[in-house]
Amino acid sequence: MKIVVVGTGYVGLVTGTCFAEVGIDTTCIDIDQKKIDKLRVGEIPIFEPGLEEMVKRNTQKKRLHFETDIAKVLDDAEVVFIAVGTPPDEDGSADLKHVLNVAKDIGNHMSSYTVVVTKSTVPVGTAKKVNEAIQKQLEIRGEDISFDVASNPEFLKEGAAIEDFMKPDRIVVGVESDEAKHTMKQLYKPFMLNGHPIIFMDVPSAEMTKYAANAMLATKISFMNDIANLCEILGANVNLVRKGIGSDPRIGSRFIYPGIGYGGSCFPKDVKALIKTAEENDYKMRVLEAVESVNEHQKTILYQKVENHFGRENLKGKKIAIWGLSFKPQTNDMREAPSVVLIKRLLEAGCKIAAYDPVAKEEAREMLGDSIEYKSDQYEVLINADCLLIVTEWSEFRFPNYRVMEKLMAQKLIFDGRNILDIEKLKSLSFNYHCIGLNAHK
Ligand code: NAD
């Protein structure tokens, strides 16, 4: 089987590489020539554990190819995935221009029956638009070629993308024809051998499933952050409350950790897009509006704690050390990272910032320029620091050398936005420790 994946970003590259890994002849397409040139020589544009070796292995075995010109590869492709970005438009709705450009390209170059699959996260009704865009080009060409448009939203998590793709909890596929259903079943067979379910449904339901999943996860985060803030006011400990509620299987223990708000390329834009879709259909997503508003507030929580401690008027010139910049661990993705909001607030107040992130230094520099110092070692940022802010819960921050820290820092003061440090240990070493959802000084 030959397939094509259009858009070689986080999703497209992982998707293409994982299909190649199970033996499918796969070509990844991107309009970014530099990206494709680098991939051809084994340079990976993103940090994703395990991906580099997999790309190299499959390129060498000639199962994985990289191209910029879709016209060269459509001829004998049975399936074409659209995995380009769907960034938020100015009004919050998903911008479909990249998706529809690809649909147009497909319509211009396809030569036989093809299953076109939207893997990008797209609003309900997009498959219909993709269908129309392809049909229009075929009519212009005077061709009558049959095709199907299927929806196959992606649920991988950055940082665990390979594992998620190779061993998915489930595969959701929206199809309108038996032929497309059969093709998709064949394609995903190698990933279902361990009993993972493939859930077939109609196309609009598949499109909606992705938004519902991300909206639910964002809701869990905002709910827990709201509970954490109230715990702090009332003198309860959110870590204990989390364990208490998480042991109920109806609630579950995963994804109920408080912090400094969700970020990344998916939750913020997908929550916005779903609110917008509802608005366009005269419906109000009241829960999601609150989810968004709690999240915006939560991104400022750590700054507020710093300001409360020092007093706004004393922040000018304070040396702040930051551990973690990426929106979550195991990725260099800085899109919508809460660290950016925090850093901007601290800079406005006149603070001087030195930050360390294991992999996101260059991506952070692209966003924040040289307004902060970027260090290559987690302890280097602590030299003469007035306080440390923990922003991303990278594993290497979980068990730091406190003795070294106290020697380097000007003040033994820590604001932990991810609740990862050991409160008792810090107390015994007389650190002044603040975290989310509990009073560490009690
Ligand atoms: P990305 O920005 O990393 O990659 C998109 C790629 O598409 C870019 O390399 C871009 O150059 C390329 N592209 C744009 N227009 C093109 C065209 N006409 N032809 C060929 N290539 C083109 O985006 P991403 O993070 O991989 O996300 C892609 C989609 O998957 C989005 O809809 C996103 O919401 C969804 N998604 C993302 C994740 C994630 O964790 N990143 C998870 C699930 C779903």
From TrEMBL:
Keywords: NAD, Oxidoreductase. It holds the Pfam family UDPG_MGDP_dh_C. Residues 321-423 form the UDP-glucose/GDP-mannose dehydrogenase C-terminal domain. GO terms for molecular function: oxidoreductase activity. Pathway: Nucleotide-sugar biosynthesis; UDP-alpha-D-glucuronate biosynthesis; UDP-alpha-D-glucuronate from UDP-alpha-D-glucose: step 1/1. Gene3D superfamilies: Cytochrome c1, transmembrane anchor, C-terminal, NAD(P)-binding Rossmann-like Domain. It catalyses: UDP-alpha-D-glucose + 2 NAD(+) + H2O = UDP-alpha-D-glucuronate + 2 NADH + 3 H(+). Its EC number is 1.1.1.22. SMART domains: UDPG_MGDP_dh_C (SM00984). NCBIfam families: NDP-sugDHase. Belongs to the UDP-glucose/GDP-mannose dehydrogenase family. This is UDP-glucose 6-dehydrogenase. It comes from Splendidivirga corallicola.
